[in-house]
Amino acid sequence: MQKPSSLVLLGAVLVVSACARPTTVVTPPTPMVAPPAIVAGLPAVPAVRGAPIDVRVRYPAENQLLTSRDSNFVLGSIGTGDVSLTINGQAVPVAPNGAFLAWLPNPPAGALRYDVVVARTADTVRRTVKVRLPVRTTLPGSGKLRVDSGSVLPVRGMWAKRDDYVRVSLRAPANAIVMVQGSDSVLRPLVRGTGLTAAPTVPAGDGNGDANRDDMSSVFSTDLAARLLADSARAPRLVAIRGADTVRLAVPIIRALPADTRVLAMLRSTSTIGSDTDRVVNARTIVDGTYKWMLLNGTIVEVTGRAQGYTRIRLDGTLDVWVDNNDLVLLPEGAAMPRRVTGGFRVTPSAEWVDVAISTGDRPAHLVEPDGRTLVLTLYGVQANPEISPIFGNDTLVRRISWDQVTSDRVRITLTLSQPVFGWQSIWDDSRRQFVLRVRRPPLIDAANPLRGLTIAVDPGHPPAGATGPTGLYEGDAVFPVGEQVAALLRARGANVVMTRTSLAPVGLTERGVTARRANAHAFISIHLNALPDGVNPFTANGTSTLFYHQNSEPLARPVQDELMKRFGLRDLGVHYQNLAVARPTWYPSALAEGLFLMLPEQEAAMRDAGFQRKYAEGLVVGLERYFRIFAPVLQP
Fold first, then answer.
1. Which of 129, 406, 456, 490 is the most exposed place for a label (fewest CB within 10 A)?
2. Which keywords does this chain's UniProt record carry (predicted)?
3. Judging by beta carbons within 10 Å of its beta carbon (0-12, 13-18, 19+), is residue 56 exposed, middle or buried?
């Protein structure tokens, strides 16, 4: 385990990916040199004329399952721009380089395909792409009673406290009566939800049939105490009745956790990257939800439930959260919960950070929240008793510490700083049995050369995953040359550069953050291109955005977004909080730029243009300069 004295600090990080070069363009644009002034806008799409017709539909793929409700996009390329294009009889514009993007109604259930027709003078080329729509059991309002057995809740493998309420539900015809029989043999009604469930697009078992307009289903549900679903000797059942028909279904048995003892577990991240400081367990508010807590390996917690691959753990008397099943190890039956009581808060400054050490006896679950010039540390399952709190060195960064016993087992500690929060690290010092919050000092900045001497982490986004444009340009390839230009511009300004990816090969998300932390980066910036999910109109939802995770990174995201907007001239999608894996490390501020949408033909073409790549890089670097100037000393006249 890494001790406070051995923690390695990091510099700044920026993400970018490389773009493949076009092979069929006949009239490529002349590469631009850095202009003396900012010129907003995208370069012209290079024209391809007279090339062979080569129809390639990038999305949807053959037999793709469409998840949209009524409309969806189709994108791809034809290899040449001097053609006309229709898809399912509707005219679709073709870009000068042969790329296309269409927004079309979903095909009817009886003809689940896109018929692509390309024409040039006497030549006609046809291509058909078959697709699928979601399949669901049809439940008519008459005839023999049928219910959807695949909709039964709860699912197998669920754990709960005996008095926890568990959702029991079933999709059945709206004119049926649905009840649940618990282990006490009592029949209790399930209540039909408001409104009928929309008819499925495709009936069960037929991906190409007509939509069944006879579906009259609804979801019936109730909440039942787990103890009534936990007796295997008297297994619970769902009962659906309509007229003389009755359908009975078994309800999966719930494991009811004991009411008189605790089930304890130790958190243990499955990651093998970095040290224990890097390997945190991410906890969420709901099953498969967004991350909120980054808990230390070795923290002992109470288990209060399990569902769908996640385990519910108790942080204190009023807060339960969810972690992946693989991120904990159950302790032997009868294991006791450690008592966590704080001593004094010991503040020890050093050249690059300030350590606030809190003796707790055992690792506590915790949350750190930055807010301007304050850091708020919440310790769960802890009682505070800080009689003496020495502050050494008369430190200029941590100006005040206050604490509050919010509940009987939750402590809130507020650190008031002399400067905006820059970075921090949560560490467990096993030798002293102390939780250490290491608060990083902002770097010393020269306003005239704000990046000189800093370490910046440049992160070309993807692979793995990533978007692909109409002509096949992959996001990971497209942003890589932008990252290389960012690195060159940073070095020219006197910065040290750490690239999280130095080739087109995949690099894991966790590895990127570990690389930056070990390099003691002062900032992390990630370079990406955007795409949309099924059912979102790309012609009205595209633009430029910059994302952050921790609040202390928002001041970095804003000038980056501003500089990209000046250069691109696209729709301003703004600065947003988003739960981003590469932005979760806390030692430095991080921002992730989504410069444009790779799925649009003219924006994909721009990412093949060396001049536009430089424009993207310049926006990121100037945004970094503007951010770091806020830490430069103000000279008095």
1. 406
2. Hydrolase, Signal
3. middle
